[in-house]
Write a structure and sequence with these properties.
Helix content: 25-40%
CATH architecture of the largest domain: 3-Layer(aba) Sandwich
Structural class: alpha/beta
Number of domains: 3
Strand content: 25-35%
CATH topology of the largest domain: Rossmann fold
Distance between the termini: 83 Å
CATH superfamily of the largest domain: P-loop containing nucleotide triphosphate hydrolases
Mean pLDDT: 88
Strand order of the largest sheet: 6-5-7-8-4-9-10-11-12
Radius of gyration: 26 Å
């Protein structure tokens, strides 16, 4: 008979302990260890004996076939870009996001688009009944004979349905509700999430089916459960955005079949999600003219340049220590740039509160936005607006120099398309590419030179 053993497993990082502890030694979270029962001997019985299971033989890499499989077109250009060209057959993908952000709506629309192409799609829901899914499908005007719906949480029953139906795409919503009957712990626990994901991975690789699983997120915004879950899948996509705003951003943080820097932008409406083809025009649509502290920067999101408005507000502080708040950019980068402005340019910012915001809810991480942040801070501090048709690009060093950036031609071309007349760029990027007609290029070597050009 199988022996039952009790252990305590952290629900955040998967750390195992023979006894309960208030603080997890692995991730330092409090009250995250939950008691689980481990049944020894199950794995040996599942193989039909005590010996090791058979494994594949090693092969020479030159003898292996490397044929490129055609991807499944989701008919969403934004989603295809994030995935690297579409869904890869035999891939396991993880989609995470806050509750109510639109994960189920997006995946139901994707299921409809793929089913219209003649592929069988199985949508499995562990949180909603088939009637609830039908109500959402009617609201989204989704009707197709190739789209199948199943309300089930048992992994073995789900595998049986997949074997009988042989679909091209399987949606599992969500992985925290699915359970394996041989695991004693409750659904959503570390053991259940790990085993269920491993089960779907074997189905995906063995039968060549593309599977998309939905994962809940924690209060910190990461996928709930152990980090092992993200290591097991082929692609991890995060669906971001504010619930009170209509725009959503789909960001890739892991992709074995494409770039991890791409983003897709969608707009939520009454008929579901609609992709935004020109995000630069969206982010700049509400920009006010003649406002101090507003600067436009051309940022690269993967292979696509996006023009975004950076806003800064500098006010005298009423506290002993001035406040530094940032939304959409790194807080530490703001403090560094303000120190450069104070030391190299002579702006007295040590008694000023600073608030920096990226309009539109997008997050920027690349260093090419440094110069635009510095110009916005100086513009607000001096209460002098920047030129409305200027775009600012460049990285700032600690000595006040402006360093070169990559893909300057794509950034300037995108600015020209949206009607900008002048681009302030690093002097190092002035040569080696063709300047588009209708836009003036100004090269600067220091932050002080950039402030003189942008503000005067």
């Amino acid at each position: 008979m199988a022996k039952t053993k009790t252990k305590f497993v952290c629900q955040e990082c998967g750390y195992e302990s023979p006894k309960w502890m208030g603080k997890c030694p692995g991730c330092n979270n409090w009250n995250s260890l939950v008691e689980e029962r481990e049944v020894k001997g199950v794995k040996a019985m599942s193989h039909g004996g005590s010996g090791p299971a058979r494994s594949a033989r090693a092969q020479k890499i030159m003898d292996l076939e490397g044929k490129d499989q055609p991807r499944i077109n989701t008919e969403f250009m934004e989603l295809n870009r994030v995935l690297g060209g579409g869904l890869v057959p035999g891939s396991l993908n993880l989609v995470g996001g806050d509750p109510g952000i639109g994960k189920s709506t997006l995946l139901l629309q994707v299921s409809h688009q793929i089913a219209r192409q003649g592929h069988k799609v199985l949508y499995i829901s562990g949180e909603e009944s088939t009637r609830q899914i039908k109500l959402r499908a009617d609201r989204l005007n989704i009707r197709d004979d190739n789209l199948y719906v199943l309300a089930e949480t048992n992994v073995e029953f789900i595998e049986e349905q997949i074997r009988d139906l042989s679909p091209s795409l399987v949606i599992v919503d969500s992985i925290q509700t699915v359970f394996h009957p041989e695991i004693v712990s409750a659904p959503g626990s570390v053991a259940q999430v790990r085993e269920s994901t491993s089960h779907f991975m074997r189905i995906s690789k063995g039968q060549g089916i593309s599977i998309v699983i939905v994962g809940h997120v924690t209060k910190q915004g990461s996928i709930a459960g152990p980090r092992l879950l993200e290591h097991m899948v082929d692609a991890v996509l995060y669906f971001e955005g504010e619930r009170h705003h209509a725009y959503r951003i789909l960001r890739s943080v892991k992709n074995r079949f494409g770039s991890t820097n791409e983003i897709g932008i969608f707009e939520m409406g009454e008929k579901g999600l609609r992709e935004v083809i020109n995000p630069s025009e969206l982010f700049l649509s509400e920009r006010s003219k003649g406002a101090a502290g507003s600067t436009v920067v051309a940022s690269m999101e993967g292979t696509r340049p996006v023009l975004v408005e950076l806003q800064a507000l500098i006010t005298p502080t009423s506290y002993g220590t001035p406040r530094r708040m940032a939304t959409g950019v790194d807080h530490n980068r703001i403090a560094l740039l303000m120190a450069v402005l104070e030391k190299r340019v002579g702006l007295l910012l040590q008694n000023q509160d600073a608030y920096v915001n990226v309009a539109g809810g997008v997050r920027l991480d690349e260093p090419a936005i440094d110069l635009a942040i510095a110009v916005s801070i100086a513009s607000s501090f001096r209460d002098k607006p920047t030129r409305h048709h200027d775009v600012v690009i460049g990285e700032v060093g600690l000595t006040g120099e402006v360093r070169g950036v990559s893909r300057i031609e794509q950034r300037v071309t995108e600015a020209r398309k949206l009607g900008f007349k002048r681009a302030i760029i690093p002097a190092k990027n002035m040569h080696g590419w063709d300047v588009p007609d209708g836009i003036e290029i100004v090269g600067v070597q220091t932050v002080e030179d950039a402030l003189h050009e942008a503000i005067g």
